[in-house]
Design a protein that fits this description.
With about 400 residues, the protein is of the alpha+beta class. Among the domains are: about 25 residues, no CATH class; about 180 residues, Sortase, Chain: A, CATH 2.40.260.10. Strands 1-2-3-4-7-8-6-5 form an eight-stranded mixed barrel. Strand 1 and strand 2 form a beta hairpin. The chain is elongated and about 175 Å long.
């Protein structure tokens, strides 16, 4: 039988039973694990005591020992920082000071986050983007961003579906009709604009060119002695009409045909059967002429501005026939041919004489009515004696 350990014997002395408590022996063994830290019995130094300096409002420092006698709040000593600037009020020593408030509570505190460790992987550095430039730049795929998938295009499943899709894309009858009608209106508007431009602008230019040519031809015939035939042919110019008040000088041709005479910028002499009027050299009669008020040279556009006494002069190869404006009829029917009679009605003339009648359309840009202006001869002057006073400037 193996004898028991001495310390377990109740008769063993007490001083040899120091490791009777549980765990005491193991603690002693752990202290002897390191021979360099195994002091001699009775020479084990006390555990280290931390020493900290604390701010004391009374102006002295206290030392704190032991682990179980720590103050209520322990603040690690920080590097010196400039105190905040407060209002420069005088310090009052009588003011009570709360000792529980530490100096560090009123000091500025700055927090600096701890640097994070770099990840094990490296990001691809994206090229620098300059928003100020206007050059082309390649598209840069953002990091950690998945590319946008392209939409899936599906072809029609059958020919029937393809036909239905094609039929759905076609415009309906209402849309087609509206498009055609819109094109018609646009075309019509363009044509009307061209027609108005032609009537109001180009016809005056063309008629002015034709009238100038006819006036030159008349002057040339007079110079050559060819201006005295027994009868003038329709459309042939034989005289010049002067209205100094309106600054009008226009050739006078035989007949009132629109294409041969009036549309060429000239004034036409009433010479047709039923509308035949006298010539200027007749001793009695009414020399009646017609002309456009608008477009095609518009020689009679402003005859409504004539006043009684204004001169109207007819120049032939040998003679100047001077008339004075006598009366005006603002509006009458186109069928009223009595206004060009030898003694025109509504003119105020009571007996035969040597008269002149100017006829034109009214209102402007229409041919609904006729405007009539009458004049009476006051002078007959040979061209060899010079121009009349009204033509001398």
């Amino acid at each position: 039988m193996t004898p028991g350990r001495p310390e377990s014997d109740p008769d063993f002395p007490y001083e040899h039973r120091a490791y009777e408590d549980p765990g005491t022996f193991e603690a002693a063994v752990e202290q002897l694990a390191d021979p360099l830290n195994d002091p001699l019995p009775g020479q084990q130094p006390p555990p280290p005591q931390p020493q900290q300096e604390w701010y004391d409002p009374q102006g002295y420092q206290q030392e704190w020992y032991g682990y179980d006698q720590q103050p209520e709040r322990q603040q690690p000593q920080q590097a010196y920082q400039e105190p905040r600037q407060y209002a420069s009020a005088p310090y009052d020593e009588s003011t009570s000071y709360d000792e529980s408030t530490s100096y560090y509570d009123s000091a500025p505190y700055s927090y600096e986050p701890e640097p994070q460790p770099e990840p094990a992987y490296a990001y691809a550095e994206a090229p620098h983007r300059d928003d100020e430039t206007v050059g082309l730049r390649p598209q840069v795929q953002e990091l950690d961003q998945e590319p946008t998938p392209e939409p899936i295009r599906r072809a029609p499943g059958s020919r029937l579906e393809a036909r239905r899709a094609e039929r759905a894309r076609r415009p309906g009858p209402a849309v087609v009709a509206s498009r055609v009608l819109g094109e018609v209106f646009i075309t019509f508007g363009v044509l009307m604009l061209l027609f108005v431009t032609y009537q109001l602008w180009w016809t005056n230019i063309a008629a002015g060119i034709e009238a100038d040519k006819e006036a030159s031809r008349i002057q040339q015939n007079w110079a050559n002695g060819e201006g005295k035939p027994d009868a003038f042919e329709p459309g042939q110019g034989f005289a010049m009409l002067h209205i100094p008040t309106l600054d009008v000088v226009v050739p006078v041709a035989e007949g009132i045909d629109k294409k041969k005479v009036l549309d060429r910028g000239m004034v036409g002499h009433y010479a047709e059967d039923g509308l035949k009027s006298a010539m200027p050299e007749a001793k009695k009669g009414n020399f009646a002429v017609a002309g456009h008020r608008n477009t095609h040279g518009e020689p009679f556009r402003y005859i409504n501005r004539l006043k009684p006494g204004d001169p109207i002069i007819v120049e032939t190869q040998d003679t100047y026939y001077v008339y004075e404006m006598a009366n005006i009829l603002p509006q009458t029917s186109p069928s009223n041919i009595d206004v060009i009679a030898p003694v025109p009605k509504q003119s105020g003339f009571t007996g035969p004489g040597r008269y002149i009648t100017l006829t034109t359309c009214t209102p402007e840009f229409t041919s609904t009515y006729r405007m009539i202006v009458w004049g009476k001869m006051v002078d007959e002057r040979p061209r060899s004696e010079g121009k009349p006073k009204a033509l001398v400037r």
